[in-house]
Amino acid sequence: MSRRTLIASAAVLAVTLAGAAAQAQIRIATVGPMTGSYAAVGAQMKAGAEQAVADINKAGGVNGQQLVLEVGDDACDPRQAVSVANQMASRKVAVVAGHYCSGSSIPASKVYGEEGVLQISPASTNPAYTDKGGWNTFRVCGRDDQQGLVAGKYLATTFKGKKIAILHDNSAYGKGLADETKKSLNANGATEALYAAYTPGERDYSAIVSRMKQAGIDVIYVGGYHTETGLIARQAKEQGMNITMVGGDALVTNEFWQIAGPAGENTLMTFPSDPRKRPTAAAAVAEFKAKGFDPEGYTLYTYGAIQIWAEAAKKANSIDGKKVADVLHGGQPWDSVLGQISFDKKGDITTADYVFYVWKNGNYSEL
Amino acid sequence: MAYALQQLINGVTLGMIYGLIAVGYTMVYGIIGMINFAHGDVFMIGAFLSLISLTLLSVLGLSSVPLALALTLVFAAGIAALYGWTIERVAYRPLRGSFRLAPLISAIGMSIVLQNFAQVSQGARVKPIAPLIPGGIQLMNVEGFAVQLSWMQIVIVVTTLAVLGVFTYLVSATPLGRSMRACEQDQKMAGLLGIDTDKTISLTFVIGAALAAVAGLMFLLYYGVIDFFIGFVAGVKAFTAAVLGGIGSLPGAVLGGLAIGLIETFWSAYFSVQYKDVAAFSILVIVLIFLPTGLLGRTDVEKV
């Protein structure tokens, strides 16, 4: 054997060994806006993913293998999201906990779907992400239209026997919200006294307010944005009505209070609950706090996404995207920092994540 | 009955606001036969000027509401008048001898300029203001339905009627009004007879813009929320009101505004809220079929 052949075979051996070492690890990824105007969210996702990987590895990894985290940056730009998705797929990641913006998650999910990569978004709430997604799309946050489920049920039980009006502004968001709320309200045995649309962008809602006054309305559910909701609250008060306004996540902005003023007192709205306050998150929160990091926003959602994937991969005894997806679609509950979560056939969580917040004296807090 | 009365109050207030803006459209049309599409945006500028003035005055510690409103009215009307004069000088006067459509396009351009100017300088978000004239009176209470009339609604109706009275007097009984009417009939002849037509037209724009500022202040006080886009929506309605009432006629503008406000409100009250604009504009079309010059418009005698 010549010296040259010896070196060559040694090199081949080294490469094979390195390959074997890499095989013993599982690559997973989180992709989000690590730069740009939402970079704060990107930092939360990265911290959540790092902590989840560290905790899973400490507990023995997945199927006897350790996890390695890749971090991708899409800057919430759909084009960059697609190129990062291709990059992640070429690195053979098993799962992507991302992206953040729905506009990025949706095009990226196509790439992942073709490459056999599972995607669990911690934050994209647009219904189209799972409605039009393939076999591989999941999310651990709520959907925009799940707010209606929560709102309708709450209205039916809390305001039993009161007269409820449902208004919407004919926008995709507003009408979607109002229709889902109506459906859920009716399913819970209550009927609205008035269902009507208003024209957004106007300032005068006195006619519709008087109409509600005539109908003796006690509670107004508005599927719409904060400007019109604030004006309706204000004009209702001016006309001497004593009503409770109820709305969606669009009202969680200080501008609502500026417009409505004291008329906005006790206004209720649905918004995702703070995952830091859930009992299942206590241990993880303590770990984050020990490191001097406040796990706010999407930190725990990202943590939970990876945690659930790891559990499902253990159950499937495989990290193959389709096999894990089948297990996740199975509908069984998964324990996570976010609480017990199960997925439906589309990949949405079955227990809506929304709770009520209330405006008091210019500030809002969880009810 | 109580319900109808409440809706009547709503409709009259809305109509009076449309009418107040419509007076500005109709004055300019009356004198130079041109539709000043930028008028709605001058109204928006007036509302912003009022907001700036009220904010400044409250920062300076002025606590008397009537005094603050009076100062704001003078400030907003004054600056808006300057806008009106500049717009006429820059966008319309150079095109006066040109073909008919040129100033119209220039007016639409001016409208876009003002809108974007306000959007860039004041931001695209809505600007709220706390109610300055709160409260009102309860007219009657029938089976739990209380009919409310707020002080602000009374202020709006009184202001519009006062403005209408003053301007009707101005146009019909003062030397300036005489020059305006002369320009309306025949600019060239008026010029030959010694009327400074440029000055008269300038003054019309100045007065129209000041009026728009008054409307802007009322709008701000009544609804409490403004943004850079209010001029468009209100402008379209006010322009329709001016046409319905008979463009060129001052009482017609207020009557037209009132008609549109009442149609919108009563349609929303008894039929579908969504179709109120369809109803208002359908009635406009029907009226124009039978009365092509509007409710109070005069038929133009063709000069030979």
What does this structure look like?
The complex is a heterodimer of chains A (367) and B (304). Chain A has two domains: 3-139 and 276-341, Response regulator (Rossmann fold); 146-272, Rossmann fold, CATH 3.40.50.2300. Chain A is α/β, with parallel strands linked by helices and 367 residues long. In chain A, the strands form three sheets. Chain A has a seven-stranded mixed beta sheet with strand order 7-6-8-9-10-13-14. Chain A has a five-stranded parallel beta sheet with strand order 2-1-3-4-5, with helices on both faces. In chain A, strands 11-12 form a two-stranded antiparallel sheet. The longest helix of chain A is centred in the N-terminal third of the chain and has 21 residues, at 3-23. Chain A is built from 13 helices and 14 strands. Chain B has 304 residues and is mainly alpha-helical. Chain B has a single domain (2-125, 150-290), classed as ABC transporter involved in vitamin B12 uptake, BtuC (Orthogonal Bundle). Helices cover 73% and strands 6% of the residues of chain B. Chain B is built from eleven helices and four strands. In chain B, a hairpin with a 2-residue loop joins strand 2 (136-142) and strand 3. In chain B, helix 2 (39-59) packs parallel to helix 4. Chain B starts with a helix and ends in a 14-residue tail after the last helix. The chains are: A alpha/beta (367), B mainly alpha (304). Chains A and B meet through helix 8, helix 9 and helix 10 of A and helix 1, strand 3 and helix 10 of B.
